[in-house]
Design goal:
By secondary structure, the protein is mainly α. The chain has helices at 13-22, 24-30. It is extended. 0% of the residues are buried.
């Protein structure tokens, strides 16, 4: 039986807002990474922003044999 975690500690709202104000490029570089997206990609409209606490989910790569309704 897999572990299911239902009580997730989220980042403080003030930290999320601070990271949003810094912008993705600054945060990405501060984490030691470069090139999050191709330089030719642009927002659909200027000023678009979003910031939130995310949860990473790990699951099976495909449905186990006999449990998929796709056949």
């Amino acid at each position: 039986m897999p572990d299911v975690i239902t009580q997730i500690e989220r980042a403080d709202t003030a930290i999320i807002h601070g990271l949003a104000d810094a912008g993705v490029a600054i945060v990405h570089d501060a984490q030691g990474r470069t090139g999050p997206l191709a330089g030719r990609l642009r927002p659909i409209f200027a000023g678009a922003r979003i910031a939130a606490s995310a949860v990473t989910v790990s699951g099976p790569r495909r449905a186990p044999i006999g449990r998929c309704s796709c056949h």
